[in-house]
Amino acid sequence: MNLFSKLQQRQADGNPLRVGLIGAGKFAAMYLAQVPKTPGVHLAGIADLAPAGARANLARVGWKPEQFGAASLDAALANGNTHLGDDWEALVSHPKIDIVVECTGNPPAAVEHCLAAFAHGKHVVNVTVEADAFCGPLLARKAREAGVVYSLAYGDQPALICELVDWARAAGFPVVAAGRGHKWLPHFSESTPDTVWDNWGLTPEQATIGGLNPKMFNSFLDGSKPSIESTAVCNATGLVAPPDGLTFPPASVEDIPFVCRPIAEGGVLHQKGQVEVISSLEKDGRVIPYDIRMGVFVVFEGDTEYIRNCFREYMVRTDPSGRYACLYKRWHLIGLELGISVAAVGLRGEATGAATCFNADVVATAKRDLKPGEILDGEGGYTVWGKLFQAAKSLAYGGLPLGLAHQVKLTRAVKKGQSLSWADVAMDERLPAYKARREMESMFAGQAKRVAA
C-alpha cells in the first residue's frame, strides 16, 4: 500500500520510471490528464498513427505545447519532456524506456506491439483488452520467458475484478463468482453504431459533443466488451465461463449475493467459481435502483458457521442463507487510474492482472444473416458481436476470435445468432496476430480440455 511513497522516492532520486505510450485516444487521454501530476514517472514518448489527433487530445487534457515538443526521444529523455511521433518501433526499441503502455484499441496491432516490446526487454501494460482476450495466455508466457512483466490495465474493469478476487482469496474466502455490471436487454446483441445512442441513453448530439465513438461504445452495449473482459478475468484468475455464455441476470447491488450463487441454491451459477455480468435493467426494461452498471464485484463464501456469524455481527449484506456475501466497487475511473499499473509493474514487478491459464475465449457471433463475400467489421460493428465461450468448447468448435474478425471475408453463409469458425472466413495467415493465436491454441489446448473436464 505504498506505491505513492515509492514514486516520490524515485522522483527524489532523479530516477523516474520511463514510459512509452502507443496510441493517444480516449483511454490514453485520461492517463495523459494524470501523468504530469504523478511523481516518479516520465512519459518520455508517445507514438500515434495520427499525431495531429494526439496533439488535440494532449491540448484537451491540459498539456502545453512545450511539454510534448521534444524533437526526438533522446531529447525528451534528456530534458524531461515528451516526444510525440508516429514511430512505435523506435519507442519500444529505445534502450532507456522501461514500460510500454499499449493503448491503440487495435487487437492485431496490439499483439505485434506487445511481442516487440518483450523482445526489447520492456514491461507492458496492455490497455487493449481485446488483444488479451484472444491472445493473453500467450502474451503472458512470452513476457515471462523474456524476463519482463505483462499486465492488464488498472482502471479498466478486468484488473479491478482481479484485484477483488485476489483480496478474497488472500483473506481466505472461497470465491463463488466475480464480474462486472452492464446495461443489458437481449435485443442489444443486435445493436449497431446506428442504434447505439438510443439504447445507451444519449442523444446523437450529446455523443458528438463528447467526441464519443459509436462503434466503440456499441461494443459495450452489444455484449462484446462484457464477454471480452470476462474472458480476460477467467484467464487471469482461473474462474470459469458459463457453459453457454453470459446470462446477464438483473440485480441491485444488494441482491448480487442472492443471484450469484449456485442454481441448486436459487441462484444463476452453474458452478462455484464462475464469472457473470449483472444487468442494471429488469427484463421488462425497468431501471434497477442502486445498480452496479459501471462497477465490479466479487461474491465470496462464509463456509463455516463461525464466519457466517461474523457476517451477521458486522451486518454484512448476504443472501438469505447468510453464506454468500459481496464486495464491490460501483464505479471505475478507466484511464484516470492507469498509473496504478505503471507503478505496480515498474516498482514492484507485479502485474495488475495477467493470464495464468486458458479458461475462456470470446467468439464472433452473427448479428444478422451473413452472406458469402461479406466483410466482417469486428467488435461493435454491424456484422458480429462477441460471445463468451469456455476455452475447450471454443477450441473444439474452431471458434473465430472476435479480435480477429475485422476486415475478414466470409466464405460461406452464417445464420443470425450462429457463432463463426475459422472455416467460415478467409484469414490472412501471414498476420502476426493470427500466427500468435494459432501458437497459443497449440500451446494451451491440452490444458483447456483438462479445465473443461
Description of the molecule:
This protein is of the alpha/beta class and 453 residues long. The protein folds into three domains: 3-155 and 335-348, NAD(P)-binding Rossmann-like Domain (Rossmann fold); 158-184 and 223-332, no CATH class; 360-452, Alpha-Beta Complex (Type Iii Antifreeze Protein Isoform Hplc 12). Helix content is 38%, strand content 17%. The chain contains 17 helices and 15 strands. It has helices at 3-12, 26-34, 51-60, 73-79, 88-93, 107-119, 129-146, 157-170, 196-200, 204-209, 214-221, 224-237, 256-259, 305-313, 339-348, 391-397, 432-452; strands at 17-22, 41-47, 83-85, 99-102, 123-126, 150-152, 175-182, 274-279, 296-301, 324-329, 360-366, 375-377, 384-390, 406-410, 425-426. The strands form four sheets. A six-stranded parallel beta sheet has the order 3-2-1-4-5-6, with helices on both faces. It has a four-stranded mixed beta sheet with strand order 8-7-9-10. Strands 12-14-15 form a three-stranded antiparallel beta sheet, with no helix packed on it. Helix 7 (129-146) links the parallel strand 5 (123-126) and strand 6. The chain is globular and about 65 Å long. The two termini are 39 Å apart. The model has no long low-confidence stretch (mean pLDDT 95).
Radius of gyration (Å): 22 Å
Shape: globular
Distance between the termini: 39 Å
Total number of β-strand segments? 15
Query: Mind summarizing the main beta sheet?
Result: 6 strands, parallel
> Which range best describes the helical content: under 10%, 10-25%, 25-40%, 40-55%, 55-70% or over 70%?
25-40%
What is the overall pLDDT average? Answer: 95
Contiguous low-pLDDT stretches (5 residues minimum) are: none
Q: Which class of the largest domain in CATH terms?
A: Alpha Beta
The CATH homologous superfamily of the largest domain corresponds to NAD(P)-binding Rossmann-like Domain
Number of self-contained structural domains: 3
